[in-house]
Amino acid sequence: MAKNKTAETKNSVTKFVNKVENEVKRNDAFKLIEIFKSVTGFEPKMWGPSIIGFGSYHYKYASGHEGDSPLAGFSPRKDSLVLYMATEFEKREELLSKLGKHTSSKSCIYAKKLVDIDIAILKKIIKNSMDHALKLYPAKK
Q1: Which of 64, 73, 94, 117 has a CA 20 to 30 Å removed from the CA of 85?
Q2: Does residue 140 form part of some domain?
Q3: 48 vs 112: CA distance, rounded Å
Q4: What is the C-alpha separation between 53 and 35, in angstroms, rounded?
Q5: 25, part of any domain
Q6: What average pLDDT values come out for the chain (141 residues) when binned by 10 residues?
Q7: Distance CA 50, CA 17 (A)
Q8: 49 in any annotated domain
Q9: What is the H or E stretch that residue 124 is in?
Q10: Predicted local confidence at residue 38, as pLDDT
């Protein structure tokens, strides 16, 4: 079975963020790190070359495919801030409708700038997404 491309690494989150060329995105990334840390309770870790993840869980699909993934994360991409969430979570559509200026796909939220979104709503989205992932894939004790 193929190995997941996005795995936790030992790379420095700070060094990665400091290399973001756009000053607004770089500053937004540092703000997002604090927001994600406060909601998840986890320190940031690099996942692959460009995703900043918080916490992790192990998933296994009916197909047999399994792997590890961050509970929540984001990446300061050139075009937008990409926020990685569970594909489903409590009040997903309601919260997204209140988030502010963004677009979304099944598991990503795209925002150009942090000032465009409501931080209180973002915190609820992060928490609900994380709770949903842990409900589906409980942490091993």
Answers
A1: 64
A2: no
A3: 22
A4: 12
A5: yes
A6: 72 97 96 98 96 90 84 95 92 96 94 97 96 82 43
A7: 9
A8: yes
A9: helix 119-136
A10: 97
